Amino acid sequence: MTSTTPSLPATDVVLIGAGIMSATLGLMLKELDPTLTISIFERLDVAAAESSDAWNNAGTGHSAFCELNYTPERPDGSIDISKALKIAEQFEQSKQFWAFLTEKYDVKEIERFINYIPHMSFVMGRENVEFLRKRHAALTQTALFKGMKFTDDRAEIESWIPLVMEGRDPEQTVAATRMDLGTDVNFGSLTRGMFYLLQEKPGVTMHFHHEVEKLHHNADGSWRVKTKNLESGQEVETQARFVFIGAGGGSLPLLEKSHIPEADGYGGFPVSGQWLRCVNPAVIERHAAKVYGKASVGSPPMSVPHLDTRVIDGEKQLLFGPYAGFSTKFLKTGSYFDLPASIQFGNVKPMIMAGLKNLSLTKYLIQQVRQSPDDRLAALREYMPEAQAQDWELAIAGQRVQVIKKDKKQGGVLEFGTEVVTAADGTIAALLGASPGASTAVSIMLHLVQKCFPQQSATPEWQAKFHEMVPTLGHTLADEPELVNKTRTRTSTILGLVTPAELGVS
Predict the structure, then answer these.
(1) What order of strands is seen across the sheet that includes strand 174-179?
(2) Alpha carbon distance 33, 13 (integer Å)
(3) How many angstroms separate the CA atoms of 123 and 177, rounded?
């Protein structure tokens, strides 16, 4: 049946959602093939307003320097650093791509989105101190973590993070690691700058206030994408050879609308986030680090506490959290019907089984929802003993949707990372999940391009461009110290990275 809905011009690529993932993929594809036409559809009135926004995410350049959940302890007491190595290398690839854009285009829109902020892990208790000591020893054997410092000397820790040590029980056993190469990233600023570059290119159109309502796979492999203008109410269609769903928490419902077999069995579990935001400039000035702790026994990875220095729009900020909550919304600006509407015959069993096997998460969320201001202050005082309630206000962060998928052994599993779901013919792909997504966007999109555009990716022209955008592609940086040093020197110079002291935030 022929559609009577008005049509927009056909396009090579449709990007759904104006976040960091779509911006990265769009620029990458235009670099690989400048002739491609790209249409971007975003339901809000500005890019990067959901998960990519600076106030909706932690802003940590995730490189595994301080995130203890990336280095689990094995049953035999040894430390598994495989995930940490992978994430550290992925973040180096992201910095290389950002440096490529900065050097090539030299535009103000993507300046000053990244700053050096020391990444620290801080632990309490003898068992945790021993864990941190072993973690440090294992990581510093590799090139990516050279220079990481460990100390259990209270005076040295106090010189690093005075607010964390002041008022602390002198008998408490503590330790910390510090990596001065850690970064803070304003992903909102970066994303908007990338879309500025993308819109300047011929063949790229951006449609704000447009919500995708339907996806139809045509017989020739192309897609019919039906959207609604949320201002006028008008519905329009466009035809595309490739569709990417990068709508954050909104990706799952759109993936379900595609009806591809690969989407069967996927579900989502939404978790809302909150921060305590410091409003006392004197307190903010006395802290200059991202200090990550260890999640309590039985708590999920998302509960890892951090006392977090941010630089947002040129101003130093201080946050503590996260405090979790439960909402059935999949987006901060979404609908309370998002979760029930996502439940389908194919994902009911995985969602039930994942829920039964993650009762600790349910318990944790119930506890978090019931927290009083005094409870939140008590949590803060574990990391900042002399914190005063009047110096902090509660702020709402972004909405996460954790991936639930089928599992042959368990029926369904809850994933805490990111996952790309791709159709067998490579004509549509969706990104699901949460942290450390933004920090690893470049490696995720490189993999997606190679999977969905296999013939083009194998050509000498695309191979050369891949290595121009990410020079270390194909190398294992953890084993190549000279290349790590050369790469970090180059990217930090191009990106204009300066120390916290030079920024006046020491």
Answers:
(1) 149-151, 174-179, 119-124, 290-292, 306-312, 315-325, 267-278, 392-407, 411-415
(2) 12
(3) 9
How crowded is the C-beta side of 344, counted as CA atoms within 13 Å?
A: 17
Spatial distance between the Cα atoms of 318 and 311, rounded to a whole number of angstroms: 9
The Cα 245–Cα 255 span in angstroms is 7
Q: Are 276 and 389 in contact (CB under 8 A)?
A: no
Contact 190, 20 (CB under 8 A): yes
pLDDT at 413: 65
Tens-place pLDDT, residues 368-413: 666 788 888 999 999 999 999 999 999 887 777 777 777 666 667 6
| CA-CA-CA-CA torsion sign (7, 12, 17, 19) | negative
**238 - beta bridge partners?**
225
Find tokens 């979404």 and name the residue: 334
CA distances from 179 to 150, 176, 219, 484 (A): 9, 10, 53, 15
User: What is the model's pLDDT at position 416?
Assistant: 65
- Cα–Cα dist 45/207, whole Å: 9
Report pLDDT digits (tens) over 139-170.
Answer: 999 999 999 999 999 999 999 999 999 999 99
Q: How much is the pLDDT for 469?
A: 98
Record the tokens describing residue 164, joined without a space: 């964390």
The pLDDT value recorded for residue 506 is 42
Amino acid at 397: A
> Which amino acid, residue 107?
V
Q: How many CB atoms lie within 10 A of CB 247?
A: 30
Q: Residue ranges of the chain with pLDDT lower than 50? A: 1, 500, 503-506
Give the dihedral sign, CA 473/476/478/483: negative
pLDDT at 411: 67
